[in-house]
Design a protein that fits this description.
Rossmann fold; five-stranded parallel β-sheet; 27 helices; 25 strands
Length: 680
């Protein structure tokens, strides 16, 4: 006869770790219990697991929802409710546009109906301030959405923002403004144009003229020659005014771009400024990324064209444009420029053989910097992607800047430093495995390296000095080193750091049984390029980097550094680091990996930011810092990276370099065939 079964504690002298078995979402509360066990540290009871922010919830599912561990259709509603408690209508409209552009809203109309008054709470004052109310007072029969002019004007502003990104209210089934705001603005300005043109012609000509005169007077002889060459060509023959401006960092390319903008805008003419990256675009007046401004396809190929129709508002804007300025072009694939050229030839109707449709264009950059990224491409493919191809390059007039403006009042060391940077891409002795100059501070101790750039005494008190983070950064060649350095610095940050979790799901053609092989705790360990971390630890005052183009018009671009002002459950309140004091709102978005990145498509719902004490060298392009720490434990791996990182410092004495133990050398990768020369 068998003895009755009973449970007995394991008899062992060693500790054991039990395994949590997988259970699918169909298991309901057991699934949510398991999910909580993967993120709650030191849980002591079921009650403890259900307690979030000192409140015990009735179910594990409710606790998961509060921690944002599961999808919830009502999250956008709660995000706008939260934002309405502290944000202006200006910021909420920007957030609404971002949500629309990401197709994140199931029912945009419902969100508009519920929050339209919050979206427009600043617009009655704006209508009066802009003088619109005087013209409206003589139109007693004017119709407005719901009889309210502020709501109607809000719809007009939303339509304008969407139109700048080639979208419209109608595409989201949102109501259109009933009043003709374009007509009213045209009567006030005397300009009969669409909203995109009105926006580009809204610059105050007197202010632009003053800025132009001020900047032109500050130019050196070479800069004046470049400026005069461009403007004289445009004045005499606009159809053939197509330039490439080569200039290393510090020679004043951006200064010339700005002066050109002021010059033509002071005459009431349109100048469109774009750049290859959001960060570079922020340095240009009214700058946008080239992809967002000209609707360039993301998956570019040899026969691509821009998504611009001949009769739409963007086409009208381009036809009215006097000059297009396009910065940082060496890092973009030549297909982007060829698609743009092909499109302008079509929409401008000045003959198929006229380059850029006869619109004047100034392309600029430095071919010693990082070239285009070619997926799974080696050196031949990268070289072939350069703008220096037979298709467009021979049609451009080449201009060059050489004098470094930063050296005007510099010391001998800085002059040596600048001279070395200028030669490091062109002299064979400085290519390959090279010795770093002795005047640059070098070390091998990571803790000392971190302390040098981010002293503990600063991180261990309330973070309130935005300039401190604006003027410094750790730069690395690879994302894995960026993440490691960010984690290392975060260890020294004291105080409450709310933890924000993602919702991760798998999209694939696998069967349900196969997809179950990817439990949530495994998905949270993945850090694919371009996706935010699954677990975000943040703190008010910390610098973060935006990982998506949310609203380029507002400067919210991929790579923009932000400073955290407030952390809510559904919205993060931020300011652009080094920008204006305008408050911006960052909600959670659902983002996905690109095909072939993983065996499946990983979909992650998370705030699209990451801590930004450190960044990649590629992301640092276009920025200058007063304190630069360069982690070269992993050496650079492509053309121009070492040149770029050396160019980020304003002086030799503000740069610190971290090297592997017993190393005094590092790699300098250069592809001479893509460098600019007087014979190219």
């Amino acid at each position: 006869m068998c003895a009755p079964k009973r449970w007995e504690a394991r008899r062992t002298d060693t500790m054991s770790i039990g395994r949590m078995y997988y259970c699918s979402p169909a298991a309901d509360e057991r699934y949510y219990l398991r999910l909580l066990l993967t993120v709650v540290r030191g849980a002591t009871s079921f009650s403890h697991l259900r307690t979030v922010n000192n409140h015990e919830y009735a179910t594990f599912r409710e606790a998961c929802m509060v921690l944002h561990l599961v999808e919830d259709d009502g999250e956008w509603t709660r995000a706008f409710e939260e934002a309405a408690t502290f944000a202006s209508g200006y910021a909420m409209r920007s957030m609404f546009v971002s949500a629309l552009m990401f197709n994140s809203l199931v029912s945009p109309v419902q969100i508009w109906n519920q929050f339209c008054e919050s979206f427009c709470d600043d617009l009655e004052h704006a209508i009066v301030q802009k003088g619109y109310s005087l013209l409206l007072s003589v139109q007693p029969d004017a119709e407005f959405y719901h009889g309210t002019r502020s709501l109607d004007y809000g719809l007009y502003l939303l339509q304008t923002s969407l139109g700048a990104q080639d979208r419209s209210l109608g595409q989201f089934n949102l109501p259109l403004p009933l009043f003709n705001w374009n007509g009213l603005i045209s009567r006030m300005t005397g300009i009969q144009r669409n909203s995109l043109i009105l926006n580009e012609m809204s610059y105050l000509q007197d202010q632009e003229a003053f800025s132009y005169q001020q900047k032109y007077a500050q130019m050196n002889a070479t800069q004046k020659h470049v400026f005069d060459t461009i403007t004289s060509s445009i004045n005499s023959n606009i159809n053939s005014s197509h330039f490439f401006l080569q200039g290393p960092a510090g020679t004043g390319k951006t200064f010339i771009y700005n002066t050109l903008c002021h010059f033509y805008r002071s005459q009431g003419k349109i100048v469109l400024c774009v750049a290859s990256s959001g960060i570079a675009a922020l340095l240009l007046p009214g700058g946008r990324t080239s992809h967002s401004r000209f609707a360039i396809p993301l998956n570019i190929h040899e026969q691509s064209v821009c998504a611009i129709k001949k009769n739409d508002d963007l086409a009208d804007l381009i036809r009215e444009t006097t000059l297009i300025i396009w910065d940082e072009v060496p890092m973009q694939h030549r297909y982007c420029f060829e698609a743009f050229d092909r499109t302008l030839r079509d929409i401008c109707s000045r003959g198929d053989e006229v380059t850029f449709g006869g619109i004047s264009v100034v392309l600029g950059g430095d071919f010693a910097q990082i070239p285009p990224v070619v997926k799974q491409g080696g050196r031949p493919e990268i070289v072939a992607a350069s703008l220096m191809s037979p298709r467009l390059w021979p049609r451009l007039q080449k201009l060059r800047l050489t004098e470094n403006r930063r050296l005007a009042n510099s010391n001998d060391t800085d002059r040596q430093f600048a001279d070395r940077i200028g030669r490091m891409s062109y002299e064979s002795a400085m290519i390959g495995n090279i010795a770093l100059p002795s005047f640059l501070r070098q070390m091998t101790d990571l803790d000392q390296f971190i302390e040098d750039i981010y002293p503990q005494h600063v991180l261990q008190r309330p973070l309130q000095n935005n300039d401190f983070f604006k003027e410094r950064a750790i730069l690395c060649s690879k994302n894995v080193n960026v993440d490691a350095n960010n984690c290392k610095v975060m260890e020294n940050v004291i105080g409450e750091k709310p933890t924000l979790y993602s919702v991760d799901t798998v999209q694939s053609d696998l069967t349900n049984t196969e997809t179950q092989a990817y439990p949530s705790e495994y998905l949270q360990t993945l850090s694919p390029s371009g996706l935010p971390p699954a677990v975000l630890e943040l703190k008010v005052g910390l610098p973060v980097m935006l990982l998506r183009n949310l609203n380029p018009e507002r400067g919210l671009c991929n790579g923009t550094r932000l400073i955290i002002q407030q952390i809510g459950q559904y919205v993060i309140k931020v300011k652009i680091l080094g920008g204006s004091d305008t408050i911006e709102l960052i909600p959670r978005f659902t983002l996905s990996t690109l095909p072939d990145t993983l065996p499946f498509i990983l979909t992650r719902k998370q705030f699209p930011v990451k801590v930004s004490f450190a960044m990649t060298i590629n992301k640092s392009k276009g920025q200058s810092f007063r304190k630069v720490a360069v982690d070269l434990r992993s050496p650079v791996f492509t053309h121009g990276q070492l040149y770029v990182v050396m160019s980020r410092a304003t002086s030799a004495n503000v740069m610190t370099i971290l090297l592997p133990e017993n190393m005094k050398h590092t790699e300098n990768v250069v592809y001479p065939e893509v460098l600019f020369s007087d014979t190219t």
